[in-house]
Design a protein that fits this description.
Helix content: 10-25%
Shape: elongated
Radius of gyration: 22 Å
Number of domains: 2
Number of strands: 4
Strand content: 15-25%
Number of helices: 3
């Protein structure tokens, strides 16, 4: 397989107007992931990710702009302590605290 050599490129951020380097290493990574060329500098991308209220959540899995998930109280089926879970427990299915869940699964 042919390995392409990437050279650093200087790009201009569409948000702040500052120039930034799109390194050859980053270009190779973006190509492997089939991402498009970045339009924002790393600082503006990070700010946009932190302030994203579109609900997409990005790749971090934080849930985006949805806010906190509702929590429900439950009793752990293994150790009997009270815990909270991000889903409504059903009486026909056991619920485990995070410690018991980690040790069993």
């Amino acid at each position: 397989m042919f390995k392409q050599n990437f050279e650093d490129q200087e790009l201009q951020c569409v948000e702040c107007g500052q120039g930034f380097i799109f390194s050859g290493e980053d270009q190779e990574f973006y190509q492997q992931k089939r991402y498009s060329t970045p339009k924002r500098c790393p600082v503006c991308r990070a700010n946009r990710k932190m302030n994203d209220t579109r609900g997409g959540g990005g790749r971090s899995g934080g849930g985006g702009g949805r806010g906190p998930r509702p929590q429900f109280k439950a009793i752990c089926a293994a150790c009997g302590i009270e815990t909270t879970v991000p889903f409504e427990p059903k009486s026909d299915r056991p619920v485990y605290c995070s410690d018991c869940y980690r040790s069993n699964y």
